[in-house]
């Protein structure tokens, strides 16, 4: 009996390990983007598209991938996905342009969806009946979030020794391990979830067009100064028209990709908004990463090492959140813990954005961010799934993904970048206006810098110009610090606001209800 349980546990671990490479397929080029940008010599805008397109392709393919996954035998599917991943991943090594590189990465993203589904099916079918759903979601989030940062650290470290191609070799080895594990663990090649194939092709086309417009807004909205550009206004109008067309389309379709019936469940409406909210407060991480790279001059290895602090928070909060959900703790308690951790993350960084900030100053706030992620992500995924029947699971899943990843994560990051740039310009103008003859401190710094440049042999005019430029550069960093302090002060209030609402209106004073998942808990 003990041997049987031990073998079953060993099999479960192996099945979960199979999911890791597919979750991290698109992370292969996030180790050192500057190397890839230099390799292809693309413009910043084109390179932004090359980063966004595979993500949008993967998200757009997800509904079709889940349908196709039910029709294919599981062992065949996982082996095919692993083999194709190696093929597409290797092809990107020999791409002679950024366009072909993006094409192969997009195919890798598509196959990753099938790989995730294939590797999750045995866990859902064999272990889910005996699993509490909180355990299933908790383990998945633990693996997904933890492996993401670990892969980025390993990739950044070895990429600095070799080059960006290491990430592709590294991922290929992972997929080879997937093939070996699949041959060992998948004893029967069957399609246990096979049903009559029926897919909403028209709705899928509308969704793809919708994603293409958001892709354009995310990639070029900031550079075009948003609504000051007529193409941005036109794209926004098209977005609203496509939304209306899709709503009309659902009235004449029996099984749409996102069925409006799913919004009859209050938790789906609230949960979708919460997923968007979490995506917004989590998206400020791109601000920190940009500051590390562009202002402080951290290389990719230093940035990755700093973000390992997230793992500390995740390793504490995800098991704790899973345990609390398993013990039927009130949802309000977990929400409050998660939002509070995100609030502390923003507050601490607000006080630490000062001249001389170093790597050690980021560890504590990033630990709090990891804690917040570990509390909020599992409970939000479970809450949005609560009491939703299996036939609507794809609808609620796509609602959450679009809200968090598309609107908050991608489009929200572009909007946030615009706000940061605007605040930076305002602060820079305010600081430079103080560089007058009345400001004795500024004049002393200019005079001291001018003497240094004169000592180096420059002319009077050149020394004056370089001295003023030196002071301007210092003011630029000070302005950036002030801009980030403003953003993080506002975001700290945004994080603590839900706690006030929960306590004031006595919300979610109950444990988690019934949750059914189909096809995958993501």
From TrEMBL:
Query: Localized where?
Result: Membrane
A GO molecular function annotation here is:
transmembrane transporter activity
Entry-linked InterPro entries: MFS, MFS_trans_sf
- One cellular-component annotation, GO: membrane
**Keywords from the named record:** Membrane, Transmembrane, Transmembrane helix, Transport
Q: How does it sit in the membrane?
A: Multi-pass membrane protein
Q: TM spans, by residue?
A: 7-26, 46-66, 103-125, 166-186, 201-219, 231-248, 268-288, 308-326, 333-354, 366-385, 397-420, 487-505
Q: Return the protein name.
A: MFS transporter
- Native organism is Flavobacterium fluviale
């Amino acid at each position: 009996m003990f041997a049987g349980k031990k073998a079953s546990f060993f099999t479960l671990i192996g099945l979960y390990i199979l999911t890791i490479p597919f979750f991290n397929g698109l992370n292969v080029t996030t180790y050192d983007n500057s190397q890839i940008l230099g390799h292809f010599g693309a413009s910043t805008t084109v390179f932004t598209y090359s980063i966004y397109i595979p993500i949008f392709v993967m998200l757009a393919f997800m509904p079709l991938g889940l349908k196709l996954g039910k029709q294919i035998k599981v062992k065949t599917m996982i082996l095919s996905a692993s083999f194709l991943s190696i093929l597409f991943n290797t092809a990107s090594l020999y791409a002679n342009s950024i366009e072909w590189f993006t094409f192969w990465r997009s195919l890798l993203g598509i196959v990753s969806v099938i790989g995730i589904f294939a590797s999750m099916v045995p866990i859902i079918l064999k272990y889910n009946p005996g699993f509490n759903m909180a355990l299933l979601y908790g383990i998945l989030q633990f693996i997904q979030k933890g492996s993401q940062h670990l892969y980025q650290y390993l990739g950044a470290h070895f990429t600095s020794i070799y080059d960006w191609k290491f990430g592709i070799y590294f991922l290929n080895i992972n997929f080879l391990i997937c093939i070996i594990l699949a041959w060992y663990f998948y004893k029967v090649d069957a399609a246990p979830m096979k049903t009559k194939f029926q897919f909403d092709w028209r709705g899928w086309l509308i969704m793809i067009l919708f994603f293409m417009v958001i892709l354009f807004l995310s990639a070029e909205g900031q550079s075009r100064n948003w609504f000051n550009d007529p193409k941005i206004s036109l794209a926004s109008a098209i977005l609203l028209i496509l939304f209306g067309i899709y709503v009309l389309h659902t009235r004449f379709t029996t099984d749409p990709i996102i069925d409006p019936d799913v919004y009859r469940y209050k938790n789906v409406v609230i949960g979708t908004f919460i997923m968007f909210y979490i995506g917004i407060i989590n998206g400020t991480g791109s601000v920190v990463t940009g500051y590390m790279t562009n202002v402080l001059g951290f290389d990719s290895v230093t940035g990755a090492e700093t973000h390992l602090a997230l793992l500390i928070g995740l390793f504490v909060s995800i098991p704790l959140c899973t345990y609390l959900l398993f013990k039927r703790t009130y949802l309000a308690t977990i929400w409050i813990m998660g939002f509070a951790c995100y609030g502390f993350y923003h507050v601490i960084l607000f006080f630490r954005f000062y001249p001389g900030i170093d790597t050690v100053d980021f560890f504590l706030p990033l630990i709090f961010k990891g804690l917040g992620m570990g509390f909020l992500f599992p409970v939000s995924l479970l809450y949005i799934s609560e009491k939703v029947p299996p036939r609507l699971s794809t609808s609620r899943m796509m609602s959450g993904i679009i809200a968090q990843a598309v609107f908050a994560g991608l489009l929200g990051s572009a909007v946030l970048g615009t706000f940061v740039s605007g605040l930076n310009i305002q602060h820079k103008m305010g600081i430079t206006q103080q560089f007058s003859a009345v400001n004795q401190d500024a004049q002393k710094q200019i005079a001291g810098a001018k003497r240094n440049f004169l000592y180096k042999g420059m002319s009077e005019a050149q020394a004056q110009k370089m001295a003023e430029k030196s002071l301007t550069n210092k003011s630029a960093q000070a302005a950036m610090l002030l801009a980030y302090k403003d953003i993080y002060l506002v975001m700290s209030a945004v994080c603590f606001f839900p706690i006030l609402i929960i306590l004031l209106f006595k919300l979610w004073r109950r444990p988690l209800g019934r949750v059914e998942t189909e096809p995958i808990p993501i």
